[in-house]
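Most newcomers find our protein records easier to grasp once they have seen one. Sequence and backbone structure share a record, each on its own labelled line. To make this concrete, we reproduce a full record directly below:
***
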Amino acid sequence: MIKKFIIAIVVVFIAIEIMNILLHGVILKSLYESTPAVWRTVQDMGRLMWMLYLVTFLQTIGFVYIYYKLVSSKSPFRGVWYGLTFGFTVGLGMGYGSYAMIPMPYSLALGWFLGALVIFGIAGWLTGLIVTEKKAVI
């Protein structure tokens, strides 16, 4: 089962990174561009990209570990529900918590919230596909 755990971490990390690029670099790009004073410069962000990758990797380990250890009756369906629950919680803090503190457009907060739901819903599905229980042999 540890092999599946490690495979899930790698697959889910790659999937989350791809979805983050699509969400932040394509879908929400114009919203970021409309509020340049709120964000770091492109040079600063480039210099700190390693930190984003590290945070996402550690978050992925935590995400997969919680599923691996605490979700019983593992399946892709349970993985989706786990992912949506995780995404709802993360999305609330990321989207609406940030909106309360940062002068950003509401549509960006909503995009972060909905993006977290989608990203972690898919991440949960992938985790549920990979981390499965052994079938009993009768």
User: Anything to note?
Assistant: Helices lie at 2-27, 29-33, 42-47, 49-70, 76-101, 106-130. Residues 2-130 form one domain. The chain has one domain: 2-130. Residues 7 and 130 are 7 Å apart (CA to CA).
